[in-house]
Design goal:
Elements lengths: L40 E2 L4 E2 L9 H5 L4 H4 L3 H14 L1
Antiparallel strand pairs: 1-2
The structure holds iron/sulfur cluster.
Iron/sulfur cluster binds next to loops.
Length: 88
C-alpha cells in the first residue's frame, strides 16, 4: 500500500489518543493532553462520535494517514506519535 492510498486501520485511533491538542474544540474546551483519549472518541468502537458533523475539527478532517506516522501497527503508530509529541 502506498502513502497515497493508505487508509486508517480498524481499531486504531492512535491519532485520537497520543497527540496533545492545545486548541479548544468540540467537547474539549481546554483541548486535550498527550496520551489522553479525545472526549469524542468512543472507546468501545475506537471511532469518532462527531465525524462528519459540523463541529468535527478541521485538523482532524485534514489529517490523512501515512506510513511515516501510522507505521505498521497501532502500537507503532502510538510510539511514533508519542515520539513526535516529545520532539516537535
Ligand atoms: S474529534 Fe474525533 S477524529 Fe478528532 S481527535 Fe477527537 S475522536 Fe479523533
Amino acid at each position: 500500500m502506498t502513502e497515497d492510498t493508505m487508509s486508517c486501520r480498524d481499531d486504531c485511533a492512535a491519532c485520537c489518543i497520543a497527540p496533545s491538542i492545545t486548541q479548544s474544540f468540540a467537547n474539549a474546551p481546554q483541548g486535550k493532553a498527550a496520551d489522553e483519549p479525545c472526549p469524542n472518541l468512543d472507546m468501545q468502537t475506537l471511532r469518532c462520535r462527531i465525524w462528519g458533523q459540523s463541529n468535527y475539527p478541521s485538523w482532524c478532517k485534514a489529517f490523512k494517514p501515512e506510513a511515516s506516522i501510522c507505521g505498521n501497527s497501532r502500537e507503532e503508530a502510538l510510539e511514533i506519535i508519542r515520539f513526535l509529541e516529545k520532539t516537535t
